[in-house]
Design goal:
Length: 283
């Protein structure tokens, strides 16, 4: 695939992201996400230790007042540390006209104490707006050539049941995909993880943020799947983070990997077509 076509596809992706960001649906999603607190690194660890599958957490009353949802009976709270401030009067020595005098002033102090939060899965009530990034099941024939492409790169593929919400991951020379996905969804995830494997090895991209890596991998998946007429809906996912990355800066890396994947898959289909024609003549 030519670089010019890659640029056109990236332009198309940017246009889709812009249109998503301007939609009322997306603005509603952003409003909802804005209501959740940004938790510290330490609290994210505490949440992970107590409820690894947690996605969105809030306090008992916050779920009621802001989201019209209620914590289900019997649910166990997740404990995190919340900062609280208080004022305290202190005395200090101050030089006044060459003489040391004790001066009283009020200062703010901070302390942390445990508070309880609950994950959205522990609540019920008014549905939260969600982003649909599922793949339409219209082109399942892509899975086999994509598997064969991995073989040429000495990347192992394992398809097994993963926990809810996890579609796949890569581990440096190995890709794991959730077997519950349909073949077309597996293809989209496979391209995403393949991009990670070939673009984001630890040494060459150790200074690149995780967010940019995810954007590049998902942009690569969008381009490859779009090339074969499959709507992957990555535009909604990418739109959430557009302000923090620039697709133009990633063009060279993305262009190289998608050209390689599409070139291989196209050639596979050509060879398959030739083989089918030969088979017809024999029959």
């Amino acid at each position: 695939m030519s670089k010019e076509k890659t640029k056109k596809l990236l332009k198309k992706l940017n246009q889709k992201i812009d249109s998503v960001q301007n939609s009322d649906e997306f603005k509603e999603i952003l409003k909802t996400l804005a209501k959740f607190h940004n938790y510290s690194y330490q609290n994210r660890i505490l949440i992970q230790l107590q409820k690894p599958e947690a996605t969105l957490v809030a306090g008992y009353k916050q779920w009621q007042k802001k989201f019209d949802r209620h914590v289900k009976k019997g649910e166990k709270a997740i404990s995190i540390l919340a900062p609280f401030t208080y004022k305290k009067k202190v005395t200090e020595e101050k030089n006044v006209n060459g003489q040391l005098k004790e001066v009283e002033k009020e200062v703010k102090r901070m302390y942390f104490r445990p508070v309880s939060v609950f994950d959205v899965s522990q609540t019920e009530g008014k549905p939260l707006p969600s982003i649909d990034i599922t793949v339409q099941d219209t082109n399942s024939k892509l899975l086999l050539p994509l598997k064969k492409f991995l073989e040429t790169k000495d990347i192992k593929l394992e398809i097994k049941e993963l926990k809810e919400g996890l579609k796949g991951y890569s581990q440096g020379g190995k890709i794991v995909i959730d077997k519950k996905l349909n073949d077309t969804e597996k293809s989209g995830v496979l391209v995403h993880e393949t991009a990670h494997e070939l673009l984001h090895d630890k040494e060459s991209r150790k200074d690149m943020s995780k967010e940019v890596k995810e954007m590049e991998a998902e942009a690569a998946a969008f381009i490859v799947m779009d090339h074969y007429g499959v709507e992957i809906k990555s535009d909604k996912y990418l739109a959430l983070y557009k302000k923090s990355y620039d697709l133009k800066q990633s063009l060279k890396r993305i262009s190289k990997i998608v050209s390689e994947i599409i070139g291989f898959v196209d050639q596979y289909f050509i060879n398959e077509s030739i083989d089918n024609e030969k088979l017809k003549k024999v029959i």
